[in-house]
Amino acid sequence: MIECAEACESLGYHSLWIASRHFSPEYAAAPSPLLLLAAAAARTNHIELGVAVISLPLENPIRLAEDFATLDALTRRRARLGVGSGDDPLAFNNFGVDFDGRQQLNSDLMPRLIELLEGPKLYPAVQGARSRMFLAAQSPRGANFAGSLGVGLLQGRSEPRLDDPTDSQASAAQEYRRVHPQGRVVTARNAWIGKPDDRELLDGLARHSAYLVSRGRDALPDDRGAALQKMHITCGPPEYLAAELTRRTDEIAPDELLITVDPGGMSLDDRLARLTKMAGAFELAAQ
What we know:
The chain is an alpha/beta fold.
């Protein structure tokens, strides 16, 4: 991930966001993303470094505020903090936190976290904390809450409504901007450079589906098209992907589009090759 951060900066990407996941060696992501981003900060100069997302109900808000403040200082104000209620029953069980009460706990903790990040006692101080904070939400109700708090809206890669892959996120973005017109909307999508029946892609879907089941959640749909739709995976050559992802998110009109090119398990060389192709398709180096 540190080498990816260096490469993304040199390719012209605006930001790099990493996921947080606990107790998951079979479907790995960083269990301590702020530490990983601190290491990436030492090897980069201007790319923004964000977490998408930390499960706030599993965190002590004071500890999280101090850790983010430290990362923000190390990155010279390049840090971005995405938080959400969480969706991993196993992690909640291991942390001893009620999974069913996570949304209410998240709502209760968000104002406290903002208060800490903006408060005079925090060291190092964080300037413009709300402009660097994002709440993960897919529904208009969640987007309304993010807007009322004055933080950014972060939309995930999977879609809760299969009948229309962009409907709920577009409605959420509209509601968010109604409440917070100056706020930032960040929307994530999966881009696969290749065909829908590529073995690497199908293996990645199978790994993700197995991960969901291991967490007590529903597997991805058996139908390949429905699974791709559920995960917002668009397939094709780089130039097509750049145009199609822009078109598919046009109704949302995100301020920033996050793109994942690896379904999981890809080598570093392959991942960097795909990031390079997407950077060329989006003409990032020319910006």
